[in-house]
Amino acid sequence: MNLHNHMEKYGWSAKWQELWQQSGLDEQMRKPARIIADHGQLQRLITTEGECWGRVSGRMRHDNLETGTLPAVGDWVAITGQSGEEAIIHGIIPRQSRISRQAAGPITKEQLIAANVDTLLVVAALNHDFNLRRLERYIMMAWNGGVRPVIILSKSDLCTDVEEKIAMVEGIAPGIEVLALSAIEDQGKALLETYLQPGTTVALTGSSGSGKSTMVNWMMGENVQLTQSVREDDSRGRHTTTHREMFVLPQGAVLIDTPGMRELNLWDEGNDGLSQAFNEIEQLAAECRFVDCSHTREAGCAVKEAIQNGSLDEKRLNNYLKMQKELQFQQRKEAVASKRRTATSKPVSSRKPKHSRSVIDWEEA
Ligand SMILES: Nc1nc2c(ncn2[C@@H]2O[C@H](COP(=O)(O)OP(=O)(O)OP(=O)(O)O)[C@@H](O)[C@H]2O)c(=O)[nH]1
Ligand SMILES: [Zn+2]
Domain CP-type G, which positions (predicted)? Predict the structure, then answer.
């Protein structure tokens, strides 16, 4: 039997084999593995021999004080250890993409939610939970981490103008596929399954109550352990999505359930998500008379003109400007922090925060 069989189910491929060899992590007795659940001190792993527990090596924990890099769900790592024993995690194969936001707390820091994600499924319910500004933010999060977003409008059975809603979302999601479905009425499954090909890693996100768990149950089919645990959790009134984990769907894709994201402060990995998510605004801006136009009161502003002639929604512009400001603020704080880092030789973790971070509760936006 092919030793990498287990791992292929979890997304291992010729590409990862190559990255593994290039990483220099493949020395001595080390083997590749993927983090499928993160329990803080302990990580659940899928290895060439099946599942096991692992923990980060002392060396890696120590280095983390400088690098801030610990493995997250979805990471491919290098491990040692005999089968049947707890494995030791020594390093991470360079991440190809990520879902991250700004961590809560006073220091500007990335909170990695999932690594090596191909597609982010953003779920929004077609009844009450329909907020275009919130979708724009999820789209930004995906593009910023190098992940392709797909928008899923759930509970189509509760909506009488589905086509209209799809068109509205397409209007704020250039180049992104938008689909509507109903888990309860078993509508739209084939469309969804086109994103669930074997070998791909998809992450699931969306507001609480948008129907994510129901959708997962629907994809998994009946009599699956997850379905039961989901029901069990629901009956205790807890959010099922607070515990993130990764599992293989019957369609073949690996699914990562992200924690509820009430607060989504953007984290820019330099992938220029803003330009991707708001491409048409940036194209308009190139036509403004002044290169540094703020699109608020300047003469010859092509963006303002688009709002006046109705081709651009002012709310979309405002959201764009707001997120641009957030990212600029984050970059300034980062610049200050890295200056201080080079000025003192203290490890990152012992730095005293200077600013307190403003919290943006965007769910209500
Ligand atoms: N009418 C209708 N209701 C749905 C559909 N999908 C889910 N629901 C209902 O919406 C409610 C919330 O669904 P969940 O699947 O628990 O939502 P969730 O996104 O997982 O919520 P959290 O676990 O809190 O993040 C439940 O009462 C579901 O029965 C659908 O397709 N149609
Ligand atoms: Zn302008």
Answer: 109-264
Q: Whose CA is nearest to atom 25 of ligand 1?
A: 208
Ligand 1 proximal residues by C-beta, below 6 Å: 154-155, 157-158, 182-184, 206, 208-214, 239-241, 260
Dist. CA 73 → ligand 1 center (Å): 24
Residue nearest to atom 4 of ligand 1 (CA): 155
- Superfamily designation of domain 278-340: Probable gtpase engc; domain 3 (1.10.40.50)
CATH code of the domain occupying 5-94: 2.40.50.140
Domain ranges of the chain: 5-94, 99-257, 278-340
Is the pLDDT confidence value at 311 over 60?
A: yes
* Cα radius of gyration (the chain): 22
Joined together, the tokens standing for residue 111 give 């909170």
Residue 293 assigned ligand-binding role: yes
Give me ligand 2 centre to Cα 287, in Å.
8
Query: What CATH topology corresponds to 99-257?
Result: Rossmann fold (3.40.50)
Whole-structure pTM value: 0.77
Determine the pLDDT at residue 331: 73
Q: ipTM beyond 0.95?
A: yes
